[in-house]
Design goal:
Shape: globular
Largest sheet: none
Distance between the termini: 42 Å
Helix content: over 70%
Radius of gyration: 22 Å
Number of domains: 1
């Protein structure tokens, strides 16, 4: 169990730092035939795309559908966290009752651990709430541009909090992303579809995503490096913290007067949204495991492009050339940053080798 937890911790560490695990990839490629491995990768990437895109469209329906008319974004987010926490607990109980059926850690609620994770949970709440609020006020097509500044905040916070510098090429990529963001905002305004509220929530979501990565790295030791334990505690804490927000923002009376409160369709869609919220964490880790963190970033960029095109087609929108250019700048800048970070990490990994070879030659 400890080895499995350490392995998941290593995968998360690689994802946060933008590094790959060549030894692990080499081992996997030797163990399995190329065709089988290629098929596995294709299936995992497809699963990630389908889960992520479906979750965005489903959340848009729950948050801003004219047919549903449910104006309770905090409750939607709360319910998704509740479903995730219950799923984690259910899978943990199943693994305990039927050992060998699945690899899932034992989950017991420890208040001391919950308190130590509380700062991350606050950031986590901000991340998922601002993500949903951004999606509520902006269209799915603009959603990726609206919350595209995560990479920029990563660089800024890494310098301010961790004192880590960034290469010129990575900074150039960030400037392209910022340019694409501003062009996208300008074009949304020109088309009369800009929501400053949604854009602000998108910027705040980007900031929280970046902070979430930093705080996750800090609190992982509190849960023995287990991603699932962290997911469980985060969502339990979020459920508790959301309750006063539901009262303060007046969403409980709005929910009580909601005409479809007794509808099986409504609760089915809400539960499906929670299942997708749980699944996205799993398929993200799965994609990183079967490819690499850098490939995961590239896949995420390509998925964002496909999602934008699908949204424009589904909602029958007409966009200008400059609007599409803003999307290409954001996606291109994100890809360039991924490449620059990969190049930096490869350079860092290769630098000590000549010195070690020199030392071994002297000893011989």
């Amino acid at each position: 169990m400890n080895r499995a937890s350490l392995k998941r911790s290593k995968i998360l560490h690689m994802a946060l730092m933008g590094t790959s695990d060549p030894s692990g990839e080499a081992e996997a490629s030797h163990e399995k035939p190329f065709v089988l491995r290629a098929l596995q990768i294709a299936l995992v990437v497809s699963l990630y795309w389908v889960t992520s895109i479906s979750m965005v469209f489903l959340n848009k329906y729950l948050l801003d559908s004219p047919s549903l008319r449910l104006d309770t974004p905090i409750f939607v987010t709360f319910y998704q966290c509740l479903v995730t926490a219950l799923l984690c607990k259910g899978l943990s109980s199943l693994a305990t009752c039927c050992p060998g059926t699945m690899d899932f850690p034992t989950l017991r609620l420890d208040l001391r651990v919950a308190r130590s994770i509380l700062p991350l949970s606050v950031v986590f709440i901000g991340m998922i709430t601002f993500n949903n609020l951004c999606l509520k006020y902006v269209g799915v097509a603009f959603y990726n541009v609206g919350r595209s500044l995560t990479t920029v905040f990563n660089v800024l916070l890494s310098y301010l909090l961790l004192k880590q510098t960034t290469s010129f090429y990575a900074l150039l990529a960030c400037s392209i992303i910022i340019g694409g963001f501003w062009l996208g905002v300008d074009q949304e305004g020109a088309e009369g579809t800009l929501s400053w509220t949604g854009t602000l929530f998108g910027v705040l979501a980007s900031l929280c995503v970046s902070l979430n990565a930093i705080y996750t790295k800090k609190v992982l030791p509190a849960v023995d490096g287990s991603i699932w334990r962290l997911t469980f505690y985060n969502n339990v804490n979020a459920c508790v913290l959301f309750l006063p927000l539901l009262l303060l923002l007046g969403e409980l009376p709005a929910l009580y007067n909601f005409p479809q409160l007794g509808s099986a369709h409504f609760w089915g869609m809400m539960t499906l949204g929670g299942l997708f919220g749980f699944a996205i964490g799993y398929v993200t880790g799965l994609q990183i495991k079967f490819t690499s963190p850098l490939t995961h970033n590239v896949s995420g960029t390509a998925k964002a492009c496909a999602q934008t095109v699908l949204a424009v087609l589904y909602y029958e929108e007409t966009k200008s050339f400059l609007w599409w250019m803003s999307n290409m700048m954001v996606l291109g800048g994100s890809s360039a940053y991924t490449w620059a970070r990969g190049w930096e990490m490869k350079k860092i990994q290769e630098e000590p080798r000549p010195k070690e070879e020199e030392k071994s030659n002297v000893e011989v």
